[in-house]
Amino acid sequence: MRYFIGNWKMFGVPSSLSILKKINNYVKKEKNNKNYKIIITPPYTLIESFSKFFKKKSIMIGSQNCYHKDPFSSDTGSVSSHMVKKLGAQFVIIGHSDNRKEGDTDTILKQKVEFALKNNLKVIFCIGENKMQKQKKQTFQTLKRQIIKVLDKKFTKNNIIVAYEPIWSIGTGKLPQPNDLLKTVKFIKKTLGQVFKSIKPNAVLYGGSVDGYSVNLYKNLQIIDGFLIGGASKSSKKFIDIIKNYYR
Ligand code: PGA
Question: CA-based, 20 to 30 A from 45: which of 11, 63, 201, 239?
């Protein structure tokens, strides 16, 4: 199974549904459509209406984040996994570098994963090194730490997808060399296998400047189970181009 996940970040109003309708119209006629899942994470404000619209259609809806307390608390402006689940979200992104930058520690992330799984959400757990860690050749140790501090063998392994997103690649157009990416994803899968004491590793996606061009560089890497797409997911044409080029 392949995943094409669109992270809209702070983008979208109710009329932006038209973007997803175009993607849905393309996917329902596309010949490989049984081989992949499309998940879009709009902002909180659109989860309910989009989930209702796409119920039983080819797009699934997720949340971009959730709070580390559950189900309700007195934290102004926060939204829990229980709440997004009730709106129809089936997935939640946890650990995106945007949120780590704003203070999400490993302890907080672990609580988020715990509550998300408890609420039957599937977790898209993001990890990735920054530019300095890359330059100092600390990529593997950074990724290992991010994995073992948060993921735990007591978690439902099958409900966790990992997205490798090198921070230096997000929104910059800079891309890892396919061979480096191959080695890194192998390392991530090995580490996940150690955490979950399992030989069948979790799905691992790549994210960072994915578009119709970059997907061509990576589509022969069978080890990559899909992509987490930021900027290019806000345009139906760009998103469809990714799928088209992947299966061309
Ligand atoms: P990008 O963002 O595709 O715009 O680089 C990816 C992400 O932040 O998830």
Answer: 239
Indicate which residue's Cα is closest to atom 9 of ligand 1: 230
Ligand 1 and 171: CB distance under 6 A: yes
**What letter does residue 69 receive in the DSSP assignment?**
S
Q: Is 248 helix (H, G, I), strand (E, B) or coil?
A: coil
Which ligand 1 atom sits closest to the C-alpha of 171? 5
Q: pLDDT digit of tens for each residue in the chain (248 aa)?
A: 999 999 999 999 999 999 999 999 999 999 999 999 999 999 999 999 999 999 988 899 999 999 999 999 999 999 999 999 999 999 999 999 999 999 999 999 999 999 999 999 999 999 999 999 999 999 999 999 999 999 999 999 999 999 999 999 999 999 999 999 999 999 999 999 999 999 888 999 999 999 999 999 999 999 999 999 999 999 999 999 999 999 99
Using DSSP's 3-state secondary structure scheme, residue 177 falls into: coil
Active site residue 96: yes
> Which H/E stretch holds residue 41?
strand 36-41
Catalytic residue, from 68, 82, 96, 114: name it: 96
CA of 213 to the centre of ligand 1 (A): 14
List domains and CATH numbers for the chain: 2-247 (3.20.20.70)
